[in-house]
Design goal:
The chain is α/β, with parallel strands linked by helices. It is 49% helix and 13% strand. Helix 11 crosses helix 16 and helix 16 runs antiparallel to helix 17. The protein starts with 21 loop residues before the first strand and ends with a helix.
């Protein structure tokens, strides 16, 4: 348990009166990224006199919330570079709830506190119960089906937020803004879609209220926050002289671009390094395609090649060259950003990937691929198909995903697939022959590839060719060969 009086002198502690904080925000998804990003930024504002505090909510896992409660709602963030460490105690959490342990009604009640002005979330793409190919609500999702029948006991994120909107409205409380901090293009638009489309099925009049009174600002978030391991916890405990089961580690880089569209106020996040803009989409696309797209490329192909971490991939000159080429040759031409030096941006990403202090596992990044592939790679692929241009690095990334979800690595060992569609993927793999038949069967997964790509013969042929090359020669040789062709 974290003990402030045992921490080294160089650890930064809260330099403000925590009792003056108010619960003005409820955040759903108390994961590592939020702890090292939005909560850290808000903690910096508290040190400047802000009274904006967080009620943190985990809907499923209760262990983290319980640990947080046991150490007075405090935890540490350590920024790590190859040659430096900087640890800060975060004190901006005012409440902490677990959906299953405390009950969903307690979470709805927390969002119904009069001071709450923002409900935000980091629940990963799968938490939105949406169709990545369209950005709309998936009405057949089991949790959505349940919530339509039991709106006062919701299971889904859209249902939970909608229940809070209904309760606040009944109590004549001011509306809050709903802010997604997940890696999705137009994440505010997606959030609006799933909540209003669920509302329409319950009451058209409720949906009209949401359109008129609730805002859904989009955001772009960027910071590499690897999953903590037992070894990382041990090293940190030795350094701090105190254990912290809620601790997170992150790279020094921080970026947060926010659409300035809040109905009941917001913290002055621009004073903590955020950028407040009128249109987030160009920034979202740049990050999703250049950073997240190259991350996924490295995750699938690097994992297959036996590289455990992104920094290991960067030690392979061919993988390093391929990642940069994917960014600048395949992704950059598809972007709408203006006034941004994309070459410098790509080089900064490569430098961040080389940070050996950040143990960002390829397996961690490879999770939930069916939710990530459309916005990280397939939107750009479609751009190239429309324009008649080459995008072999993107297509190799798609083929790498297909080899990965086939479930066996290059040493013949099973891969544990973590994906919301893992049962469908396993069925496709089990009922298709290795090679062209499997590629075609996977492209037929409409939730990922839509209706169009299966009928684009050049796309199918090239992905098949690259897939077969991966199967026969392995990831290292295939990446090497593609780089050599350039």
């Amino acid at each position: 348990m974290l003990e402030l009086d045992r921490l080294p002198a160089d650890v930064q502690r809260p330099a403000y009166d925590r009792s003056q904080l108010k619960t003005r925000m409820v955040h759903i998804g108390f994961g590592a990224f939020h702890r090292a990003h939005q909560a850290l930024a808000t903690d910096k504002l508290a040190a400047q006199g802000s009274d904006w505090g967080y009620c943190e909510v985990n809907l499923n896992s209760g262990a983290l919330i319980q640990a947080l409660r046991q150490q007075d709602l405090l935890y540490t963030v350590t920024e790590m570079a190859d040659d430096s460490l900087n640890t800060r105690v975060i004190g901006v959490v005012t409440q902490a709830l677990h959906g299953k342990g405390d009950g969903i009604d307690a979470v709805i009640e927390a969002m119904s506190q009069p001071d709450v002005a923002i409900v935000s979330m980091t629940v990963t793409e799968k938490g939105y119960c949406y169709m990545p190919s369209s950005g709309k609500l998936n009405p057949d999702h089991p949790d959505i089906v349940h919530d339509l029948e039991n709106p006062e006991q919701p299971r889904s994120l859209p249902g939970l937020i909608l229940a809070a909107i209904i309760r606040r409205r009944a109590r004549h409380l001011p509306p809050f803004s709903v802010m997604s901090c997940d890696n999705m293009p137009e994440n505010g638009h997606v959030t609006r879609n799933v909540i209003t489309q669920l509302a329409e099925r319950l009451s058209p009049e409720l949906a009209e209220y949401i359109h008129a009174h609730i805002t859904f600002p989009s955001t772009m978030v960027d910071r590499i926050v690897p999953a903590m391991t037992d070894a990382a916890f041990d090293v940190l405990e030795a350094r701090l002289g105190s254990s912290d089961p809620v601790a997170v580690e992150a790279e020094p880089f921080f970026q947060w671009v926010i659409e300035d569209n809040f109905v009941s106020g917001r913290p002055d996040w621009e004073n903590a390094g955020a950028e407040l803009v009128s249109d987030v989409l160009p920034f979202e696309e740049m990050k999703l395609r250049m950073l997240n797209g190259s991350h996924s490329f490295l995750a699938y192909l690097g994992f297959l090649a036996g590289y455990e971490h992104i920094s290991d991939c960067m030690a392979d000159a061919h993988f390093r060259t391929a990642a940069r080429a994917l960014m600048l040759q395949d992704q950059a031409p598809t972007l709408r950003t203006q006034g941004v030096d994309l070459v410098a941006y790509a080089d900064s990403l490569i430098a961040r990937y080389e940070n050996r202090a950040i143990k960002h596992r390829t397996y961690q990044i490879a999770t939930d691929g069916t939710q990530k592939l459309p916005q990280r790679m397939l939107d750009s692929v479609r751009w190239h198909l429309r324009n008649g241009t080459s995008c072999d690095y993107l297509l190799l990334g798609v083929a790498g995903w297909m080899r990965y979800v086939s479930g066996v690595d290059e040493q013949g060992q099973p891969i544990e697939i973590r994906d919301p569609l893992k049962e469908q993927l396993a069925s496709i793999v089990a009922h298709s022959e290795e090679g062209a038949e499997r590629v075609k069967a996977l492209i037929g997964l409409k939730a990922v590839f839509g209706d169009d790509l299966l009928h684009h013969s050049a796309f199918v042929a090239r992905v098949t060719e690259l897939y077969q090359q991966l199967a026969m020669q392995g990831a290292r040789a295939t990446v090497h060969a593609l780089v050599a062709q350039a």
